[in-house]
Every structure is written in C-alpha cells, then in structure tokens.
Design goal:
The protein contains 11 helices and no strands. The protein has 2 domains: 56 residues, Arc Repressor Mutant, subunit A (Orthogonal Bundle), CATH 1.10.10; 143 residues, no CATH class. 72% of the residues lie in helices and 0% in strands.
C-alpha cells in the first residue's frame, strides 16, 4: 500500500480543519481576523491558507458553521442504546435541527464550494468541503461495528452520508418540496432500510462462507 498517497489527503484535511479551528478561536475574541492572522494562528503560511480559502469571508463563514455542528462525544453522552438505527436517527435529528437553524449560511457555503469547483482546475487535490457528517455516522455505528464486515460497514457509512446533511435538505425542500416532517419521515425510512440491507448482505456473506 502506498502510504504516501494516503498521508497527503489526510494532511490536507487536517490543514483545512486547523484553519477553521484557528478562525473560530479568533472570532470568539469578538473580532473579524484577517487571513494572515488566521494563517499565523494555524501555524501555516498565508499562501497555504489562501489555497484552501481564497477569501477571508469564505473561511469565516465556514468557521462560524463549524462550531455549531454537534460533537459525537456530546451527542451520545449518556446514551445506552447500541441499536444503530436509533443512534443514526439521533444523528439525523441533531444535524437536521442544526441545518434548519443555519440554513442561509449553509446554502451560501454550498454555493461557494460549487462555484470554486467549476471556476478553475487549480488545487483540485484540496478538499472542497469539511466532512462533518461521517464522524457522527461512524460514532452511531460504532457499537454495531462487529456485526458487519469492514467493507460492508464502509459502504453503509457512505450510503448514509447521501441522505444525512445539507445536500439532502436541499433535495427535500427545493426539488421534492416536502415539509420538514415528511422529509424527516423519509430520511428515517431510508436509514432503517440501509441498515437492514447491510444486515442482509452480512447474513448472505456468512451463509456463503459456511457452505
């Protein structure tokens, strides 16, 4: 396995996260920092910061949203349930409430990332978005990890990411024109169906191996 190729994407994600966290710390001081100040706080060069965020407005917008996304340890603190469906519903509800409360800036962030992706081929290797939903999905699935083969669990996590998050909100509201209650019902049905499909695949794999 080429560890160098794995390390580079991981490092890019960490650098992007470091910039967001640095911006959030400076914003908590009650001021609007410059890109240079954020870069210094994150211990990276201004050129590096500019590669990830071409404007300070884009960086501060996303940093302000970064702090309102629930942390997995907070979301599941005191939760005794190990049922993946129940835990995934908890993730979906928490993210849904956060998205509704921050719909306008989330739409703006999404528009900015889409605009940047079509504007230039430069820095296509850099992550355009911060992946906030996957850590929550993985935390929800953690107690059931041993029920699935690693490949099945990874596919399930990726499939769930399609229906939990900002893009799903846009589809439900703009394309399907559903209200929040109906959108929530459909997402919960999809969550349960995906988990059941993964369980069925696991049982079929075990039966095949036992032959």
């Amino acid at each position: 396995m080429d560890t160098a190729r794995i390390g580079r994407p991981n490092q890019r994600r960490r650098t992007r996260k470091d910039l967001l966290q640095a911006a959030a710390r400076l914003m908590k001081q009650g001021r609007k920092p410059s890109l240079e100040e954020v870069a210094e706080e994150a211990l990276v060069s201004r050129a590096t910061a500019y590669r990830y965020f071409p404007t300070i407005e884009a960086l501060l917008l996303e940093a302000s949203l970064d702090v309102v996304v629930p942390e997995a340890q907070d979301l599941f603190r005191g939760q005794s349930s190990t049922d993946p469906v129940s835990r995934l519903h908890r993730v979906d509800i928490a993210l849904h409430d956060m998205i509704i409360a921050n719909e306008a800036p989330l739409r703006l962030m999404l528009a900015q990332s889409l605009e940047r992706s079509v504007r230039s081929d430069k820095d296509r290797d850099l992550p355009a978005r911060q992946n906030r939903r996957t850590p929550l999905i993985e935390a929800a699935l953690e107690p059931a990890r041993r029920q699935f083969e690693p490949a099945t669990l990874e596919t399930l996590s990726r499939a769930l990411a399609l229906i939990i998050g900002t893009e799903a909100m846009v589809v439900f509201k703009d394309v399907l024109q559903l209200d929040d209650a109906e959108a929530r019902r459909v997402r919960h049905w999809a969550i349960r169906t995906l988990v059941e499909a993964a369980r069925h695949q696991q049982r079929a794999s075990q039966a095949e191996a036992a032959r």
